[in-house]
């Protein structure tokens, strides 16, 4: 059974997925959303990969170097033991600038004996639409497209070029390297230079992890999730990706396969809010720059998502030549959801902006830029909050009056007032308070079901929805509110199954949902803990943590029965919710050392 037993390596320019057996099965260069050079993840035969095939193999183990994004795969064979350390360089150079080239580096270290293996180097550029030719040159091995758009890839290595190209047997007697780059290198690449890059990258991630706030519980899980979220941020613009991949199916054999290599306003805002809470404020600052840059006009419609370089048109098309993960077609590039109206984005963005103003000092001109965004968002809410939309789950056909969207419109106006207070713009507060009260009254009137004793998925229906659990997190209700408590129990009763959660169980564009949405299980844990069901919440949380893969990573979905990971991977949603829930269960209690650090920062 195919499973998402992968590790992610990256450098905030792009990232790769390395299987538990050491195969690079997903990589897009030079950036996250470029066409793939390796996509075995989406087609075993036509996708392309870099595999290592040891002789007389006994076992393979894999782990991250502690508190870093360097991944070590250790191979034990009858002939000897060796390890491969995979990473993408990221560190400050001599001028204090971040060095993060579009490179994947693999360092092969002999541990004992005389281990032998073959390397199968099989790039398939441009999603493998057309043939890729691999040739030996004087300084490198070059891969070039044969038809269609021109693309190329360079492999630098101190293995014999013929052994690599022809997959000949290699016996490892000393450290060797492979450097796969989108660019032709200007400096000579050798094992010493590569190991220096490795050590510098290791130090970068150790320093980054050191800045992660430590809590009374679950610090290993928090740190791994934070490291993963950092890898999903795009250094150049400040955008935050929803996930690294495209078209990993929510349910095997069905068509819920989407491209997540974009920046959703919702997902990105949630991520930066969480990273702010654990001490990583640079990501948040850069994300706010991204927001200002993609919303340049005062009356411009805010999209729900943008390309990571700020692109506004994200046309969706299919790659019919690829079989898809576990033969689940179609494989899609682009995402037509960018055209949708989703009114919850206003509140989620404004919530992150309020946190930004509270935590960060900023320049006058940047504050004025953000204040302009705040006022424009309130205008958008005024125009749109009474209209139906597609909701947080991006229903593709029918628009509805989704409760979560209405609540987040309320959040937008509430946070706008709080920002106005911080910026001493008091003349806006009374007007915005009237709008806030109007939205609240509308929700209380139309979203409550006496029959279900719960807030419902949308107005004028009795369907329940896990997103409504967030009403308390965003401050619309308090945890002790009887309506909220009743809602939590009703949603748990109707949507929980085998310890996991449906988003909803009513039919949508593609039929009835069949898989568990991972973030929803974390939301339930959070809600139960807050309403006083602390023991039950902790038990569920610790059981949920076991469903990660062998490296502590989560995808978007889980199979209710087998707990197999499904959907795009690794998923920002899942990891931000893990961190938030861990903080809730820790009751925000940081360690003694963290309190000292806070005092001297």
Automatic annotation (TrEMBL):
The keyword Hydrolase applies. Pfam families: Glyco_hydro_15, TREH_N. GO terms for molecular function: hydrolase activity, hydrolyzing O-glycosyl compounds. Residues 218-582 form the GH15-like domain. InterPro entries: 6-hairpin_glycosidase_sf, 6hp_glycosidase-like_sf, GH15-like, Trehalase-like_N. SUPFAM superfamilies: Six-hairpin glycosidases. Residues 8-149 form the Trehalase-like N-terminal domain. GO terms for biological process: carbohydrate metabolic process. The keyword Hydrolase applies. Keywords: Hydrolase. This is Glycoside hydrolase family 15 protein. It comes from Plebeiibacterium marinum.
């Amino acid at each position: 059974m195919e499973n998402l037993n992968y590790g992610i390596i990256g450098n905030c320019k792009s990232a790769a997925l390395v299987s538990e057996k050491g195969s690079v099965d997903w990589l897009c260069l030079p950036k996250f959303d470029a066409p793939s050079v390796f996509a075995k993840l989406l087609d075993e035969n036509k996708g392309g990969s870099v595999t290592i095939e040891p002789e007389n193999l006994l076992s393979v183990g894999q782990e991250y170097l502690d508190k870093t994004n360097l991944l070590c795969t250790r191979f034990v064979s009858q002939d000897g033991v060796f390890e491969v350390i995979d990473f993408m360089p990221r560190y400050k150079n001599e001028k204090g600038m971040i060095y993060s080239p579009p490179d994947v580096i693999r360092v092969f270290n002999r541990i004992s004996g005389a281990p032998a293996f073959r390397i199968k180097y099989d790039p398939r550029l441009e999603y493998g639409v057309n043939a890729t030719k691999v040739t030996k040159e004087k300084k490198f091995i070059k891969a070039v497209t044969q038809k269609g758009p021109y693309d190329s890839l360079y492999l630098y290595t101190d293995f014999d070029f013929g052994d690599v190209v022809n997959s000949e047997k290699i016996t490892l007697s000393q450290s060797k390297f492979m450097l796969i780059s989108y660019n032709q290198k200007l400096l000579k690449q050798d094992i010493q230079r590569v190991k220096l890059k490795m050590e510098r990258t290791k130090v970068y991630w150790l320093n980054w992890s050191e800045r992660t706030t430590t809590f009374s519980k679950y610090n290993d899980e928090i740190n791994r999730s934070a490291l993963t979220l950092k890898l999903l941020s795009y250094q150049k613009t400040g955008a935050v990706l929803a996930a690294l991949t495209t078209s990993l199916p929510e349910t095997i054999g069905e068509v819920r396969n989407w491209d997540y290599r974009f920046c959703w306003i919702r997902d990105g805002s949630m991520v930066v809010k969480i990273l702010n809470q654990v001490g990583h404020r640079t990501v948040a600052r850069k994300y706010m720059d991204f927001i200002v840059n993609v919303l340049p006009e005062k009356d411009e419609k805010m999209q729900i998502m943008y390309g990571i370089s700020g692109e506004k048109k994200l046309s969706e098309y299919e790659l019919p030549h690829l079989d898809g993960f576990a033969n689940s077609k179609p494989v899609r590039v682009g995402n037509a959801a960018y055209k949708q109206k989703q009114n919850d984005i206003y509140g989620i963005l404004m919530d992150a902006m309020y946190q930004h103003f509270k935590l960060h000092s900023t320049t006058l001109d940047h504050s004025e830029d953000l204040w302009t965004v705040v006022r424009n968002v309130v205008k958008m809410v005024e125009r749109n909050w009474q209209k139906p939309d597609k909701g947080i789950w991006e229903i593709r056909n029918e628009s509805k009056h989704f409760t979560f969207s209405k609540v987040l419109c309320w959040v937008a106006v509430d946070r706008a007032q709080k920002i106005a207070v911080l910026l001493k713009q008091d003349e806006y507060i009374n007007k915005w308070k009237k709008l806030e009260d109007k939205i609240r009254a509308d929700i209380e009137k139309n979203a409550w079901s006496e029959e279900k004793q719960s807030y419902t998925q949308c107005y004028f229906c009795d369907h329940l929805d896990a997103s409504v659990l967030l009403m308390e997190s965003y401050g619309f209700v308090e945890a002790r509110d009887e309506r909220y408590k009743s809602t939590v129990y009703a949603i748990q009763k109707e949507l929980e199954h085998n310890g996991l959660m449906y988003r909803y169980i009513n039919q949508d564009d593609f039929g009835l949902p069949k898989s568990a949405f991972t973030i929803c299980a974390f939301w339930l844990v959070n809600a139960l803990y807050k309403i006083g069901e602390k023991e039950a919440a902790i038990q569920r949380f610790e059981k949920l943590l076991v469903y990660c893969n062998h490296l502590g990573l989560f995808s978007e979905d889980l199979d209710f029965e087998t707990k197999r990971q499904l959907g795009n991977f690794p998923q920002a949603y899942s990891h931000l919710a893990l961190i938030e829930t861990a903080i809730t269960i820790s009751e925000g209690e940081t360690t003694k050392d963290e309190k000292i650090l806070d005092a001297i920062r």
